[in-house]
Amino acid sequence: xxxxxxxxxxxxxxxxxxxxxxxxxxxxxxxxxxxxxxxxxxxxxxxxxxxxxxxx
Length: 56
Hints:
- InterPro entries: Fur_reg_FbpA (IPR025072).
- The protein has 2 helices and 2 strands.
- By secondary structure, it is mainly alpha-helical.
- It has a domain at 26-50.
- The protein has a two-stranded antiparallel ribbon with strand order 1-2.
- α1 runs parallel beside α2 (38-55).
- The longest helix is centred in the C-terminal third of the chain and has 18 residues, at 38-55.
């Protein structure tokens, strides 16, 4: 089992938060973005990106 570096995990989390903010998403699941896990952020990003691609 490999250990993940906290710095890279934080960068990944910040990446998804920035992308969601760019889409105008400030909360997900009734929580602030910074409260979500990386997995939750990634799912929300994919869902938002897919939704935006359908609606222009």
